[in-house]
TrEMBL record:
PROSITE patterns according to UniProt: GRAM_POS_ANCHORING
Protein origin, superkingdom: Bacteria
Regions crossing the membrane: 570-587
Domain annotation Gram-positive cocci surface proteins LPxTG: ranges: 560-593
UniProt organism field: Listeria rocourtiae
UniProt key word Cell membrane: no
Designated name of the protein: mannosyl-glycoprotein endo-beta-N-acetylglucosaminidase
Length: 593
């Protein structure tokens, strides 16, 4: 009973300990439930695109960014462009590429492209009378669309308001905005966007036309979330808070303003605090201005130069505003590290070190910084994009890694540099380069893996077993063995009638290599058997007798031994002794009873 009770108690306690595992959702599930889908807007300074050279700048530095570098998770891009008079030809390559390449590429990712322009442009409407007519408003709206949006296949417009217009100005701007709203924005209901961005609470130019806009972008550069709360409340009577989109900025080159929105430590920065506030208070999202200046400071040489950026703050803010968990982002970073380790020639020790840094990171910024570095120059992979990595994780890379490892092993052991070996090296490098790049498609990986596997299969050469006589004449069909590089082989001799194996040339067992191998089995002709010698008659009779050894048959059971055989006496004596001993034992038992 004691044992049964103990077992029952142990089982009962074990069952109780399992209850939390079934009743509590995992951390991963909780993180997924917290994820949102916020708008994220960036202002793309077109004069800093690689296709614009010498436009709107006095700096000699070459531009480095392209619209293809815009991180995943950004869903609205403001093509923010100022082209000084006389520089239109210099700007043309950018706008051509915007139409033919940038636009289609970003549209394929679900990104909306809008064009920003200053509020003053609304007031430039031509009209004949004292005030524009409806027809004049409509004509001007169409002219603006044709000038700023339609030729490049853009998706909307953004009015930049940073002045204090008069009441008469407001009447005109109201008319132009209402005319535009027939073609873009929520009233048009055709998938286009109409935005209004401002840095103040000047309601007059907005309140009468607020229903014409999808989003109000609010510039709160250098400010914390107290200002976010104040400004969103101020605009609440005219636009819902889930259409309110506050934003911050990075340091523009040669700018005298000092905003410090990216001041470390990360969790005390304006960017982190704003992203968190937007997510928790269900605002529309957030934006960042001059994101190509991500990570730059107001100190020299940053403030007076144009250099590449790892976009660390931007990529982290996208994750933060959408509520990605630290654990999920660690998974993205580890996946990226595994696929680039070959192209970056990272040793196993270095990979282990970086994985440990990822695992011990306490926030999103720290996780991303392991791969992206503190800046572009110190990055392991400066183009790493967490949300792009999330998409790439759906592609199975196990066959690719296996093929690369196999090719690496072979290349470390082969001697020489034959055509097949060089083809193997090229195929491996191509796959490594593909996986180490910014992105790839399933079909690209499959094709590269298949090519490398074919090159691997072409390296090992056959082992041929040859069977011949001492004169080199063929005695049996050759046996050819085929296998994978490094696998073991073993050839076997053959039994050939009238021949005896005399010698083996070559290795009868070994491993397949890049060299063809032969094993020669050499046989000699077997000698004919000699006839028995004849009987010689020497004149005497030869008598051959078969000696027969007499063997006594064993006695039959129960048959008495023959006279003189005393072997049975001992058996009788032993039997009588056993009977006597048994009688004594039985007698003693009776006496005791």
């Amino acid at each position: 009973m004691r044992k049964k009770g103990l077992i029952f108690s142990l089982v009962f306690v074990l069952c109780l300990s399992l209850i939390p595992a079934f009743s509590m959702p995992s951390h991963k599930v909780m993180a997924e439930e917290q994820m949102t889908n916020k708008n994220f807007l960036v202002y793309y300074r077109a004069w800093r695109d690689v296709e614009m050279k010498g436009v709107n700048t006095s700096l000699p530095d070459e531009n480095w960014i392209s619209m293809s570098d815009i991180p995943y998770g950004i869903n609205i891009v403001n093509v923010f462009s100022y082209v000084p008079p006389g520089q239109e030809e210099l700007a043309k390559p950018f706008f051509d590429k915007l139409k033919t390449e940038y636009g289609p590429e970003l549209h394929a990712r679900g990104v909306k492209l809008i064009r920003g322009f200053d509020y003053s442009k609304l007031l430039a409407i031509p009209y004949a009378g004292a005030f524009p007519t409806e027809q004049e408003f409509d004509a001007y709206a169409k002219a603006l669309l044709e000038e700023l949006m339609t030729p490049w296949g853009l998706d909307g417009l953004d009015i930049d308001m940073e002045t204090h217009p008069s009441a008469d100005d407001v009447k005109i701007s109201d008319g132009v905005i209402k005319a535009l709203s027939k073609y873009i924005g929520p009233k048009a209901n055709n998938g286009t966007l109409f935005l209004y961005d401002t840095n103040a609470e000047t309601m007059a130019p907005f309140k009468n036309v607020s229903d014409s806009f999808d989003v109000l972008a609010y510039q709160q550069y250098g400010s914390g979330t107290n200002r976010t709360e104040m400004s969103s409340n101020a605009y609440a009577p005219y636009i819902a808070k889930d259409k309110f989109l506050p934003g911050l900025t990075f340091p523009e080159e040669q700018d005298r303003n000092r905003w410090y929105d990216t001041k470390l430590p990360y969790e005390e920065s304006n960017i982190y605090q704003l992203a968190k506030y937007v997510r928790e208070n269900n605002l529309s999202g957030m934006f960042l201005y001059a994101f190509d200046r991500d990570g730059k400071t107001y100190n020299e040489p940053d403030i007076s130069s144009v250099t590449p950026s790892n976009l660390l703050w931007t990529k982290t803010a996208i994750l933060e505003v959408n509520g990605y968990s630290v654990d999920s982002v660690k998974g993205f970073a580890k996946h990226h590290l595994q696929r680039i380790k070959h192209s970056k020639a990272l040793t196993p020790e270095k990979v282990a070190e970086l994985e440990n840094l990822i695992e011990t990171a306490s926030n999103l910024y720290e996780v991303n910084a392991v791969i992206l570095g503190a800046n572009f120059e110190t990055a392991i992979s400066p183009t790493y994009d967490p949300l792009l990595e999330k998409e790439l994780m759906s592609i199975d890379l196990a066959p690719a890694f296996a093929a690369i490892d196999q090719a690496t092993m072979i290349l470390s052991k082969v001697v020489g540099n034959s055509t097949s070996i060089e083809a193997l090296r090229v195929a491996k490098d191509e796959l490594v380069s593909l996986l180490g790049g910014k992105k790839y498609a399933t079909s690209e990986v499959d094709t590269a893996v298949a090519k490398l596997v074919n090159r691997i299969d072409a390296i090992p050469q056959p082992v041929t077993a040859i069977y011949q006589d001492t004169n080199g004449q063929k005695l049996a069909e050759n046996a050819q063995l085929i296998g994978k590089f490094g696998d073991s082989y073993e050839t076997a001799k053959k039994d050939i009638p009238d021949y005896t194996l005399q010698e083996v040339k070559g290795e009868s067992s070994g491993t397949f290599s890049e060299m063809a191998q032969e094993v020669i089995y050499i046989y000699s002709k077997a000698e004919a058997a000699k006839a028995p010698a004849p009987t010689v008659d020497v004149g005497k009779d030869v008598k051959v007798e078969n000696a027969v050894k007499a063997v006594k048959s064993p006695e039959k059971v129960g048959e008495l031994p023959e006279t003189g055989d005393t072997s049975g006496n001992w058996l009788i004596a032993i039997g009588l002794l056993a009977m006597l001993t048994s009688s004594v034992i039985l007698y003693r038992k009776k006496v005791k009873a």
